[in-house]
Amino acid sequence: MHAVVGILSNLFRASPEMALFLALVLGCWIGRFRFGSFQLGGVAGSLLAAVLISQVGVHIDSSIKNVLFALFIYAVGYQSGPQFFRSLGRQSLREIMMAVVLAITGLITVVALARLFHLDKGLAAGIAAGGLTQSAIIGTAGSSLEKLGLPLAQVQQLQGNVAVGYAVTYIFGSIGPILLCINVLPWFMKRGIREDAVRAEAAQAGGVHVPGEGAIPALPSLVGRAYRITKSGLTVSSIEGLARDVTVEQILRDGKTTAIDPEVALLSGD
């Protein structure tokens, strides 16, 4: 076992990028496994794989960390930025207050636990990042640790502790809200989250009836049907003139679709 660890340590020391991509591959593989209705996913799986691989001794250059962190922040902003600004308004004040309360209570909890268990700054920041599932804290904490004026070896150790704290607590930060919303809150509020979701959906629909999952209206406004032509010579315009609100969307002839034109003559078998 020690020989295998030594070989892997030398290999990752010579090519640290192999450890990075190996963690991604193993993490995606681990994340595909299901435990009942629960699935880790690629992010949590990669974190677990990275924690295991790091035990053999892997050093990733800080410039790679900065580049990947910048890409992560860019991707988050690119995806959620437009929706964020469009959703701002009086109706979003409640969500903003919830975010403020969550940030304050999370900070107080982490500071209290760090003082109680005598955790260093790196572990405390990692716990905050993982418990709140906020990966941006990792980059912020790493930059802040570099500005404390500590020796380089100590800074690197604290930055490593940030990653360890994040990887260990991220899974609990992901599972915790799910268990809370499914088991604890319905018991505490005396009503289920599904009923609240249906009520909120109906309110946002402005009184319009919203069919349940898998349900469709008995008389939908748009119906699609396929017909086989048994008489040649009819055109698209003539068929659309036979009944009101009828539109020919596609013609299938010999297994291939043809262009729609009002004067196209349909053949028997279309």
Main traits of this protein?
single chain; 270 residues; mainly alpha; two-stranded antiparallel sheet; two-stranded antiparallel ribbon; 4 strands; elongated
General description of the model:
By secondary structure, this protein is mainly alpha-helical. The chain has 3 domains: 1-60, no CATH class; 61-210, no CATH class; 225-270, no CATH class. Helices cover 64% and strands 4% of the residues. It has 10 helices and 4 strands. The strands form 2 sheets. Strands 1-2 form a two-stranded antiparallel sheet. Strands 3-4 form a two-stranded antiparallel ribbon. α5 (93-117) runs antiparallel to α6 and α6 (121-131) packs antiparallel against α7.
Overall average residue pLDDT: 77
Output the helix-strand order: HHEEHHHHHHHHEE
Radius of gyration: 29 Å
Question: What general form does the structure show?
Answer: elongated
Oligomeric status:
single chain
Largest sheet: 2 strands, antiparallel
**Amino-to-carboxy terminus distance:** 70 Å
Please tally the helical runs, counting DSSP H or I stretches of 4 or more residues.
10
**What structural category do the secondary elements indicate?**
mainly alpha
Number of strands: 4
Helix content: 55-70%
Low-confidence parts = none
Proportion of residues in β-strands: under 5%
Strand order of the largest sheet: 1-2
Total domain units? 3
